[in-house]
Amino acid sequence: MTLTSPGIGAPLVREARLRTYAMTPPVHFTVSYAINPWMDTSVPVDTDRALSQWHTLRAAYESLGHTVHLVDPAPGLPDMVYAANGGLSVGDTVVAASFAFPERAAEGDLYAEWFARNGFGTVHRTTGIQEGEGDFLVVGDRILAGTGFRTQRSAHDEVAAITGRAVITLDLVEPRFYHLDTALGVLDDATIAYYPAAFSERSRRLLDDLFPDALIATDADAEVLGLNLVSDGLNVVMTDRAPHLETLLHDAGFRPVTVDLSELLKGGGGVKCCTLELRRTRTMSDTLIPHDVTAPAGPTIDAEPHVAQNYSPIPVTAATAEGAWITDVDGRRHLDCLGAYSAVNFGHRHPRIVAAALEQIERVTLTSRAFRSDRLEPFCAALAELCGKEMVLPMNTGAEAVESAIKVARKWGYDVKGVPDGRATIIVAGGNFHGRTTTIISFSDDPDARTGFGPYTPGFVRVPYGDADAIAAAIDETTVGILLEPIQGEAGIIVPHDDYLPRVRALCTADDVLLIADEIQSGLGRTGRTFAVEHWGVEPDIYLLGKALGGGIVPVSAVVANREVLGVLHPGQHGSTFGGNPLAAAIGHTVVDMLAEGTWQERATDLGDHLHTRLREFAGRGVVATRGLGLWAGIDLDPSLGTGKEFCLRLAEHGVLAKDTHGSTLRLAPPLVVTIQEIDWAMGRFAEVLDEMSARSA
Known about the structure:
alpha/beta, Aspartate Aminotransferase, domain 1, Aspartate Aminotransferase, domain 2, seven-stranded mixed β-sheet, four-stranded mixed β-sheet, 20 helices, 34 strands
């Protein structure tokens, strides 16, 4: 049993148990024939989308702690993705399927071979037609068995004899619900949900007698295969298109975990169809998953014992994400207001970017720069045009882009400006954050990033941020570049005075110095412009780009400049095995095309105005100051309330993810797909946390 009562009058408590599943990826999925009412050969099938949805389902199981074994797909068997039909696993016994239609017949042999090869028990075959867990569902010590469309009644007796378990026959009468698992879902050892109209009158009476507390699905639930679900006793993985059933489950003490399997529904299958449970006499299913954790536990040194402790993350463990939302391993949804420091400007798993990635993965992903790829030049041409420049040096991470620009600026200084070899200097700003490599931390003033990592690289002059006069005083005959963030992100979203960047641009022009704009966090739509420097009408000599350029999928960065600057590099002087790889180029090109449309910048402007208006409402209520541009905000809290980390921990408990920086300052950078309603919801949670911390400090 997975349902316990802690005491008289106390609520029932659901308990999750770890499970082991078999799944087959839909590599060959299509609808080329019709053997059930859901299949229509005239409706196009997007195999890449099906594969993406399947991966999300698999990730959901693994995020809940379950084990997933993969069965290799076979060409010509598009329905093999529906692994539940491959057999029935009970104890140390497996009954491999015997399919009704010749189109699927070969699957039975393949699954039988897989069970035997991987040691999942003694494999049996039946004389009668039966399609595995499609029509045999284990509920405690009993097996519910469907018949009427696929599995023959005689096979029920065979399965009872093989497994030694009572098999209860249920008659299916509605053609759309041709397998038992399309009309009935097992929730735990004593609880089911089902759709009465799919069963004969006799079977309805039987189910009512056996399961008087069953959850009853509506027509709307059944029509989207809402009952084709998988439960571990607490967490119920199901379609995202059955809100009524989702509510029923929640009210009954279960935790719905919803996924989109709309593409696989075209073949007549859903969550359970894609999932075959492997039950052994002694398995991890005997292990309880803690059910009494209402919020993620605080960080400890043992939380990730094999991960180097170079971060102190908010204790939320992401399992899935889509758009502006992250779902954790406990099934709780969180509004992502950090956006991976602007790396997911376009939201988690944006369909257009994912589609480009999947398409390229099927072609070629890496050649190294020892050979050309057909994706690199088109990507670089599009990015150069977006920047109004001539050439692109593709790299991977933002720190690599900064390091590359430092090399380029020095080489330009020696080859073009005529600075004596070994004497080039670059002016940087106090409070800067350009990465954490050895060279970059050499000119940082952040003690956490710098202390203990010397000796430091020379060649940099640091002046206060926002002080153009200090830059003017620092420029001399050795100065080859001025490296700045147009808006300082890590420092707390520091926006300079309006005359700062124009004056720096004028100084660079007058003194033959390269203006290098680090737009890795501020660029690509974040502030309401393609690049933050556009707010001040400034064009740098070199753009440094990263984060959002990879669409939240792979690291992609770039140094973008005119030929007279990047032309100083020659073969062998700089490179990267992965820089500009075909997969990165395909994704980066898609991002550039999206930005070229201009709608993302407009969206960031409009939503940013709303965000900053709402934030200003908190002035005097525990908020000392707010600042920023577009969907990028820095918030200074009253230090008497507590630290920024404490505030972020409380926000996470309320379902909002943000990140602190420098004491009592917070940063907000939600994906640009966020809506006004979601911003307002986040501001409501922000207000609640402010009130809680104010009451505590009073």
